Amino acid sequence: MLSSRLIASLSAAAVIAWSSAAIAQRAGNACWAPGDLVHRPGEEIVQKRAKAASIMPPKRELAEYSPVPQRGVVRRVKLPPGVKLVALTFDLCEQPSEIAGYQGGIVDFLRQNRIKATFFFGGKWMLSHRERAQQLMTDSQFEVANHTWTHRNLRNLTGSTLTEEIRNAQTAYEQVREELDTKQCTAPDGRTPAARQAPKRLSLFRFPFGACSPQALTEAADLGLLPIQWDVSSGDPASAVSAATIAHNVLDSVRPGSIVLFHANGRGWHTEAALPAIVAGLKAKGYDFVTVSGLMAAGEPIMSETCYDLRPGDTDQPRFPRPLSASNSFGSWFNSGFPTGSTRNSAPRPSPSLSAPPRPATAIPPR
Are the CB atoms for 124 and 170 separated by under 8 Å? Predict the structure, then answer.
């Protein structure tokens, strides 16, 4: 007869074999093959006046949440002495009359170099880029957040229009996450069920144009969202601002606890080319990269009672007439909102319907 010790060993071996088989089965049911995650040429193109751009927000109840205290917006984080952390953030927003882009080369670089980052999703962008949104929300290297439904200037909105512009991005996220759950597949790590890797709801929020009002601040808080601004703007939505200038601006402006603003929706014109120099330069200065939540957990968030770009009041004007230069300004480049069909946020393009940022001519080797 088999000894009790041998039986126990066989049982343990059976459990290990079953676990290994289960892991292998899950790995075989990965949501995406490695090649599915990489950049596909053409995805970065912004399609203006596209017929497919007319997208309605989902009609559904929000996941359970609790309102947050209305304390203003987070601009940066005060860190303990000697701690050098920085949060890179990327906006993925989309206007009503367009299908914005997805700059996969930026994401590829972040993944290859293990750089943590936070992506602010527009609700409509998520519905026109479902698979890419799901890939980002299930990647443990990244954090995702709310950037409104169609990037309207919330300083100019009131009542139900204001509420829905914020709320619809939440419902879009929860819809896309639910669709991911029905696939019953694993996240990029090959082990974790994808839907479990994605948070049930978004808890961070960014105001379009860095502009808000007391009513908008209250509405975001009532929907359980903490507004995140920035203290360093890369200036990347302006095609005239070169990669070298973007890198210089960021490296010259970052300090411990900074939150840096970039774009990855087809309007980060030279962002991909600038990132290698930015990352190498910050690493050389002793910085580590974290998500916004990771940054806040490491120190004390510095709050502002109102929203602004460089100085209080600069995004409260009806228009921002100053041209964007190498001055590291974001709000100066935008007008007060995006009317339907507006192209004010784009430099002249070779095509009236398609636009894309240039791919870098040469890749700077990661350090």
Answer: no
Q: What mean pLDDT is reported for the chain?
A: 84
Q: What is the pTM of this model?
A: 0.83
Per-residue pLDDT at 202 exceeds 90: yes
H helix or E strand, kind and range, residue 85: strand 85-92
Question: Contact at 8 Å (CB) between 307 and 336?
Answer: no
> How deeply is 50 buried, as exposed, middle or buried, from its count of CB atoms within 10 A (0-12, 13-18, 19+)?
middle
pLDDT at 365: 37
Q: Which residues contact 260 (CB under 8 A, 6 or more apart)?
A: 86, 87, 88, 89, 230, 232, 233, 234, 250, 254
Q: Which CATH number fits domain 84-337: 3.30.1490.20, 3.20.20.370, 3.90.170.10, 2.120.10.30?
A: 3.20.20.370
Q: Are 253 and 348 in contact (CB under 8 A)?
A: no
Say how far apart CA 305 and CA 300 lie, in whole Å. 16
Q: Delimit the domains of the chain by residue range.
A: 84-337
